[in-house]
Amino acid sequence: MQHYRQEVRIEAPVEQVWSFFGDTTHWDDWMPRRKTSDVSGPLDKVGTTYVQSTKLMGFEMKWTSEIVEVEPLRLVHVHSDYGPMDNYFRFEPDGEGTRLSIDSDYEWPGKMPGFIMDLMAKGWMERNMARMFEDFKALAEANVPAKA
Question: Is 8:133 a contact under the CB 8 Å cutoff?
Fold first, then answer.
C-alpha cells in the first residue's frame, strides 16, 4: 500500500472552506482531469456515493467513492473501490484561515498496464494533488466575502 500527504493553508474560515469543498459544482474547476457524476447526496453525510472518471494516455479509469466517515467542519473520509483508496480530508482552523490536508492510502489495481502504473508513481500523485490543492485554494479564497 502506498501513502501520500498534501497540505495547504487557505485564507478563508473553516466554515467557508468546508462549504466550498462540499459543493460538487466546483469540483471540475479544481479537479479538471476528473469528471464527477451520480452524486447521491451531500458530501457531509455518511453513505453518500459518487462516480469519478479520468483518462490517462487513452485509458479510461472509472471508480465509485463513498463517504464513510464525517466529522463536521473537521474530516471527510472517502473510500474508493479503485485500488482501493482511502482519502482523509482534514479541515483545521489556522488563525483566520484554514489548513486543509489530505492523507491518502492506496493500492494500484493489478489490471493497470505496467507503463501506466509507472507514470502514476508517488511523485506524480503528489504533484497532481499539489496542483489540485493550489487550484482549490485560489478558488476558495476568491469566494471569501470582503470584510466590512
Answer: yes
pLDDT, tens digit (0-9, with 9 covering 90-100), for 6-30: 999 999 999 999 999 999 989 989 8
Instruction: List, for residues 32-48, the tens digit of each pLDDT value.
Output: 788 888 999 999 999 99
Asked if residue 78 is part of any domain, the answer here is: yes
Full residue range of the structural domain in which residue 123 is found: 2-31+71-142
Query: For the domain that residue 15 is a member of, what is the CATH number?
Result: 3.30.530.20
The answer to whether residue 60 sits within a structural domain is no
Tell me: cis bond preceding 32? Omega within 30 of 0 counts.
Answer: no
pTM for the model: 0.84
Supply the DSSP symbol for 125.
H
Contact between residue 49 and residue 40 where contact means Cβ atoms under 8 Å apart: yes
